């Protein structure tokens, strides 16, 4: 889990706040400050600046649960607790002022500003070329990465998001581009530069695992072109190209597949596989800093054993969507009566709090052993030793498959590699329906984002016009309790002309003097 031994820092505008020397990159407690003039002199300064690019990994409102509120709009889950703000997001009635979603937009721009500062300062520093190139590569990568999420959530054919680079960062006003393709062009340029400068992950020592790497740049190039293809079908060829560049990079990317279907998929999300051949880029976490997502998904109040938050519950629709015999279902979802291990004790699942009768199981590995081993001692901030994947190799295979299908080509090899790991029979002549099924089964409750998939496929309106259902058990304290199927969330009105993007927080609109996304 060690990221490096240098100081991590956070850059806000012209101020620089440094962090203490820590064993892990995710230990980011501020300990002091320094001036711009006293900084940017040594390799440790450059590395510390690069470390600051990852500080958002420990921000609850980013990949802890913040961006999960957008995923929660999908048909795979419902909000597990009464909360007006999150309900407004899920029902597409949000204004952008909601505390659940009003900070991510500006936080991505903070990443961009930090990257811009690095790109301004580091080129002239008298440091070794290998360190300089890696730090600059990280800056280009994280800027492209930040714009990828901003563009996906807030940009469309009517307007992109403001483009701020090291060349114009001193301006006081930034207009929205007339089309999100201008953002995609910027992202692609940044990620190509990152891929040129960054090393393969296989060259990193243990202290640097978790940093951006060449494969991650290629992966986000593929993801960018998937979104770009909504406006230009020619981009599907680019998706295939960049997926192949990940596969052929020399880093040995591969699925975890030992021909044990009942174990292999579940093990992808085990702590010992935080840096496996499958994880291309992930949120680095430890017991004191990082993503709180596993705790957010755990049973509310945790049976009195640990303070789980119980915010997102799988729907019956997701549970029933898996093919018969697909082991990914039990690895992804706990249903009443399922056997699992909690804090060293085998037990059968039940829940007095689940809205649907289910709980996500995918990130439960830290809860298998005594809490002191892998969980934050404070359940009020339930981080763990488990990294949270942002891009897995399975996504590379299925993005390539989609790119091939969209070009009228055969994608059976790629889809069947994913199916084979799950022990499922091979299919022939795979089409988009097959591709959609695999993505749902493979990536449920991951930042791969089913909601975004449904939007770009044009399927969101029909999917959300149906109510979400769950199993309501007669006795919620008994694993073997009988149940009835009931509606747990009403049908929603998704307007594809409006709700394909999210509202930009009004305060950010006011500060930047830009227009809101139409219809919000």
TrEMBL record:
Q: Where is the RagB/SusD domain?
A: 305-520
Which segments constitute the SusD-like N-terminal domain?
A: 95-223
- Where does it localize? Cell outer membrane
Xref: CDD domains = SusD
Pfam families from the xrefs? SusD-like_3, SusD_RagB
- Supply the InterPro entries for this chain: SusD-like_N, SusD_RagB_dom, TPR-like_helical_dom_sf
Q: Does the keyword Signal apply?
A: yes
Keywords annotated in UniProt: Cell outer membrane, Membrane, Signal
Q: Where is the signal peptide?
A: 1-22
Regarding protein family, the annotation reads:
Belongs to the SusD family.
Record protein name field: RagB/SusD family nutrient uptake outer membrane protein
Q: Which organism is it from?
A: Sphingobacterium bambusae
């Amino acid at each position: 889990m060690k990221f490096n031994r240098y100081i991590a820092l956070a850059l806000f505008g012209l101020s620089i706040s440094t962090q203490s020397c820590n064993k892990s990159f995710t230990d980011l407690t501020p300990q002091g400050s320094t001036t711009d003039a006293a900084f940017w002199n040594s390799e440790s300064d450059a590395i510390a600046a690069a470390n600051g690019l990852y500080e958002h990994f420990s921000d609850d409102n980013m990949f802890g649960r913040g961006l999960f509120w957008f995923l929660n709009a999908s048909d795979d889950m419902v909000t597990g607790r009464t909360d007006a703000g999150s309900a407004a997001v899920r029902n597409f009635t949000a204004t952008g002022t909601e505390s659940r979603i009003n900070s991510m937009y500006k936080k991505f721009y903070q990443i961009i500003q930090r990257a811009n500062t690095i790109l301004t300062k580091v080129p002239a520093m008298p440091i070794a070329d290998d360190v300089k190139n890696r730090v600059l590569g990280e800056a280009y990568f994280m800027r492209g990465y930040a714009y990828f999420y901003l563009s996906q959530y807030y940009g469309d054919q009517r307007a992109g998001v403001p483009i701020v680079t090291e060349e114009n960062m001193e301006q006081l006003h930034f207009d929205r581009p007339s089309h999100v393709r201008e953002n995609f062009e910027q992202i692609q340029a940044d990620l190509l530069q990152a891929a040129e400068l960054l090393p393969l992950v296989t060259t990193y020592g243990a202290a640097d695992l978790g940093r951006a790497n060449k494969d991650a740049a290629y992966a986000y190039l593929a993801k960018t072109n998937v979104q770009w293809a909504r406006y230009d079908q020619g981009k599907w060829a680019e998706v295939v190209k960049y997926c192949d560049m990940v596969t052929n990079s020399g880093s040995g990317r591969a699925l975890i597949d030992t021909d044990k279907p009942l174990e292999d998929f579940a093990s992808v999300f085990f702590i010992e596989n935080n840096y496996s051949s499958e994880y291309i880029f992930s949120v680095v976490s430890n017991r004191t800093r990082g993503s709180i997502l596993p705790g957010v998904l755990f049973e509310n109040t945790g049976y009195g054993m640990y303070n789980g938050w119980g915010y997102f519950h799988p729907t019956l629709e997701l549970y029933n969507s898996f093919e018969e015999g697909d082991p990914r279902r039990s690895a992804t979802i706990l249903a009443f009566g399922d056997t699992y291990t909690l804090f060293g004790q085998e037990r059968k699942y039940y829940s007095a709090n689940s809205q649907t009768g289910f709980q996500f199981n995918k990130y439960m590995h830290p809860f298998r052993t005594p809490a002191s081993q892998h969980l934050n001692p404070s359940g009020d901030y339930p981080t763990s030793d488990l990294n949270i994947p942002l891009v897995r190799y399975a996504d590379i295979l299925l993005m390539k498959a989609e790119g091939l299908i969209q070009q009228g080509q055969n994608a059976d090899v790629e889809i069947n590699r994913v199916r084979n790991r799950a022990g499922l029979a091979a299919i022939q002549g795979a089409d988009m329906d097959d591709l959609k099924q695999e993505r749902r089964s493979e990536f449920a409750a991951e930042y791969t984002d089913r909601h975004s998939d449904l939007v770009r496929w044009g399927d969101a309106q029909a999917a959300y016009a149906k109510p979400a259902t769950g199993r309501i058990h007669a006795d919620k304290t008994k694993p073997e309790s009988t149940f009835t199927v009931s509606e747990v969330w009403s049908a929603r009105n998704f307007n594809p002309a409006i709700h394909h993007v999210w509202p930009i927080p009004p305060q950010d609109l006011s500060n930047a003097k830009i227009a809101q996304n139409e219809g919000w």
